[in-house]
Amino acid sequence: MKLLIVEDDKSLSRSINDYLKMEGHICEVALNLHEAIYKAADNKYDCIILDIGLPDGTGLDVIRQMKANKLSGGILIISAKSSLDDKLTGLNIGADDYLTKPFHFAELSARINSICRRNNFMGMNEIIFNEIRIRTEDNQVYINDKLLNLTKKEYDLLLFFVVNRNRIITKESLVEHLWGDNVILTDSFDFVYTHVKNLRKKIVASKGRNYIKCIYGFGYKFIDS
Fold it and tell me: Does 29 share its domain with 71?
């Protein structure tokens, strides 16, 4: 998943960033309100981890801007403030959940996963698409009820394809979603082709259908027939 961490405490934001990256997520950091609003408007995130108390304003303004611009993505508020009013305000204007500092990183990760399941998969722990079964709780994929051995990037790629099936997905979109905007982009997208080719090969080798089609000059399309 692609996450934005909005936290002005550099030590805490670095620790959250390191932990969530270790969990396999793509993470970006904003240290103030201005940077958070700019990044939220310019990128698509699966979830934003949002501190309320920022040096140049309230993090609640990020939520207001997102809702006003009809931007998608989950929102998890993290704040040292524990009053009921703060929680209700955040939730009423569009946040998905609220976590009070201090917190354990494992709980933070669980809350993020829960938000993304609710928003992307209607709360389902499993996504079933024909002979493909994806278990979002433990990142396991089965083809015809047999476990498919995928790398983390291959799993993320398959999940992205299934959620966006029948849409043309550019290579640039795949890079932004799976590697983040910190990746060094060149004129060559050979590394994207390699991941797609390996995923397709593993699905077909497990008696799955070849759903991934190359759209020349654009990118890829995951078809359902």
Answer: yes
Range list of β-strands (E), 81-197: 97-100, 126-129, 132-135, 140-143, 146-148, 168-170
Q: Do 100 and 11 belong to one domain? A: yes
Q: Which domain holds residue 173?
A: 126-222
Neighbours of 99 (CB within 10 A): 16
| CA-wise closest residue to 70 among 99, 41, 92 | 41
The answer to whether the pTM exceeds 0.85 is no
Count: domains in the chain: 2
Q: Which of 96, 106, 105 is nearest to 48 (CA)?
A: 96
Q: What is the pLDDT along the chain (225 residues), one digit of tens a residue?
A: 889 999 999 999 999 999 999 888 889 999 999 999 999 998 889 899 999 889 999 999 999 999 888 888 899 999 887 666 777 888 889 899 998 888 899 899 888 988 887 777 665 678 889 999 999 878 899 999 999 999 988 998 998 898 888 888 888 778 877 776 555 555 567 788 889 999 999 999 999 999 999 988 888 999 976
80 vs 173: CA distance, rounded Å: 35
The tokens of 74 are what? 């989950």
Answer for the pair 150, 141: CB distance below 8 angstroms, yes or no. Answer: yes
| Whether residue 29 is found in the same domain as residue 133 | no
Same domain, 50 and 147: no
Annotate 67-95 with three-state secondary structure: HHCCCCCEEEEEECCCCHHHHHHHHHCCC
